[in-house]
Specification:
It contains 15 helices and 18 strands. The protein has helices at 2-77, 82-97, 139-146, 165-169, 202-241, 261-267, 271-274, 285-289, 292-303, 347-392, 398-429, 439-449, 451-457, 473-489, 545-555, and strands at 101-107, 114-120, 131-132, 150-152, 174-181, 186-194, 246-250, 256-259, 305-313, 319-330, 336-345, 435-438, 460-463, 468-471, 497-505, 508-515, 560-565, 569-577. Helix 1 (2-77) packs parallel to helix 5 and helix 11 (398-429) runs parallel beside helix 15 (545-555). It is elongated and about 195 Å long.
């Protein structure tokens, strides 16, 4: 019994020992596993910390690059000279990328080489002296030809490009080079360089390209400014040589800043006498009191330019009639810089026009008076011819009857001529103010007056829809009547074929009366609008109808002309202003 008890106790002790050993083994394994996990976590934490530090450094680099780009852009906006901008560009770029060198090489159009224009880290004596070849096999040549960023990490390992002797002297091992466009061609290259091998990344290349674009914009502005200055010099030289026109410029308030030879000749002031004076000096006292100079400035500023005619006053007090054009001048930002003014002396033309107007008035008065005074003796002649025919017609032989007929026909032609002269004289003196007129209705009235003649000739007329125009209805009817009558008169052996139509031309309508008649020689297409000018043998018309048409059309501010070929017919065109607010 005791032995059995001992045996059970011994087996139990053995099992307990085994359990303890197993627990110790499990504990030892867990400890090792926990240690390994801790090592892994510490390694992961270290790697994460390294990545965070790396990313932070990258972000700091990007922020530094962005800040440098903003600063150089502000520097460029201050319109500093190109050399100053290039130097500042190199300094800031080298500082941000922690490079040993940064440089701007400009392309020499004569030699084709690149010349050092500015640089950081370079000996100052090299600026303007150091040259780079753009031959194939060089980084500079590749950059110029491809307009792309070119990166060299290590010249010792580089198999694309050979290192120029200039860079070997400076111990350059790595670099980024980008083109500076201007903008159609390459102006030069911009680069950063280091003495040790270095892996510049795409962010670095983009930063260098962005900095180069600031320089490119400045180069473009400089070229544009030079072109503008050259054009300005050429223009000023041309203006100074012009003697037929007075040309000068004013500041925004109207004070004279430039003065050409023509202005001195026309107005009498020398440049020393007039610069700084107000341009209203040349206006009459009446115009100055009425505020005309100030009104000209306002209108030129609002509309861009203003054109007017008025009396101007010379230095000696004499007046001349002038046509003046005043134009507002703005800078590239749209700010008003002043005005240019061009004056042309039209005194002789105005005097001629005034004499011509007076002569025309006298001629119209004479034509009206003469025509009116001729009416009474013509009626007497006509009455006596009729009385002779009534009383003695049967007693006349055939020759006498023929002579009497010719006398009566001559009196009839004289009456038509006098009526035409009266109509011609009344165009200006007995006309109504233009008003909206239905041209189609006016043409129908005119054709009604010609109904007998149309039937006698067997004419075929076609009329398209005609518009509403601004005209004197009676005078417009006269134009239609005369043109259609001419087409009927000069139709040749065939029955007249006449077509009337109109087309819109901006603010006016062009009417056309086409016929298929005998046509007009090219040398006579202008003369036919003169008084008493007739085509062919001179029979048929009075020679005044087309002159009346021209005077009526001219009074309405239009034009009249003819396109014609002998034997091919004629197309008479005339224009009338479109009625306000009317689309047809």
């Amino acid at each position: 019994m005791a032995e059995e008890t001992m045996s059970r106790l011994q087996r139990r002790a053995e099992r307990e020992s085994q359990r303890r050993k197993e627990a110790e083994r499990i504990a030892e394994a867990s400890t090792r596993d926990l240690y390994d996990r801790q090592q892994e976590l510490e390694q992961l934490a270290a790697e994460l910390e390294h990545r965070v530090e790396q990313r932070t450094a990258e972000l700091e680099d990007r922020l530094a690059q962005q800040s440098a780009l903003q600063e150089i852009s502000r520097f460029a906006l201050q319109r500093r000279g190109l050399p100053d901008l290039a130097e500042e560009l190199c300094r800031r770029t080298a500082a941000v990328l922690e490079a040993d060198y940064s440089d701007v090489f400009q392309l020499d159009p004569e030699t084709g080489d690149l010349v050092l224009a500015a640089g950081t880290g370079w000996p100052s004596a090299q600026v303007g002296q150091a040259h780079l070849s753009v031959d194939a096999g060089t980084q500079a040549g590749h950059t110029i030809r491809n307009w792309d960023a070119t990166i060299v990490d290590d010249y010792e390992q580089e198999d694309r490009f050979r290192r120029p002797p200039l860079f070997a002297e400076l111990d350059v091992q790595s670099s980024i080079a980008v083109v500076v466009p201007a903008p159609e061609d390459a102006w030069g290259i911009f680069s950063v360089r280091a003495r040790e091998p270095r892996s510049f990344d795409r962010h670095d290349a983009r930063f260098v390209q962005a900095m180069a674009r600031v320089l490119s914009q400045a180069v473009h502005r400089q070229r544009s400014q030079r072109q503008l200055e050259e054009e300005k010099r050429r223009f000023e030289t041309l203006v100074q040589q012009v003697e037929e026109y007075a040309i000068f410029s004013c500041d925004p308030e109207g004070h004279i800043q430039t003065w050409n030879v023509g202005a001195e000749t026309m107005i009498g002031y020398t440049e020393d006498q007039i610069l700084g004076e107000h341009f209203s000096t040349f206006f009459t006292e009446e115009d100055r009191r009425a505020g005309r100079p100030e009104r000209s400035i306002r209108e030129a500023e609002d509309r861009g330019s203003v054109e007017e005619e008025a009396w101007q006053v010379r230095k000696d007090g004499s007046r001349f009639w002038a046509k003046m054009t005043m134009t507002a001048l703005h800078d590239e930002d749209g700010e008003l810089q002043g005005f240019s003014k061009v004056i042309r002396d039209l005194t002789d033309r105005r005097r001629y026009e005034q004499r011509l107007e007076a002569t025309n008035r006298r001629l119209e008065q004479f034509a009206y008076a003469a025509s009116h005074d001729l009416q009474e003796p013509l009626r007497t002649i006509t009455s006596y011819l009729q009385l002779l025919d009534d009383r003695h017609g049967e007693d006349l032989d055939p020759d006498g009857r023929d002579l009497l007929g010719q006398a009566r026909e001559g009196a009839h032609r004289m009456k038509r001529l006098i009526d035409s002269l009266l109509t011609y004289a009344r165009v200006q003196t007995e006309s109504r103010e233009p008003q909206p007129v239905d041209a189609h209705g006016v043409l129908e009235d005119a054709l009604a007056d010609l109904e007998v003649k149309i039937e006698e000739t067997g004419a075929r007329l076609t009329v398209e829809d005609l518009p509403t125009v601004q005209a004197d209805p009676d005078q417009l009817a006269q134009v239609f009547r005369n043109l259609v009558s001419n087409a009927l008169e000069y139709s040749g052996d065939q029955a007249p074929c006449i077509h009337v139509h109109a087309v819109r031309e901006e603010q006016r309508w062009r009417f056309t009366v086409d016929d298929e008649g005998v046509g007009i020689p090219s040398e006579a297409t202008e003369e036919i609008f003169e008084v008493f000018h007739r085509i062919g043998d001179g029979t048929g018309g009075t020679g005044i109808g087309l002159a009346i048409c021209e005077q009526i059309v001219d009074r309405h501010g239009g034009e009249i002309w003819v396109d014609s070929e002998p034997g091919e017919g004629s197309a008479f065109h005339f224009t009338m202003p479109a009625a306000e607010g009317a689309s047809t």
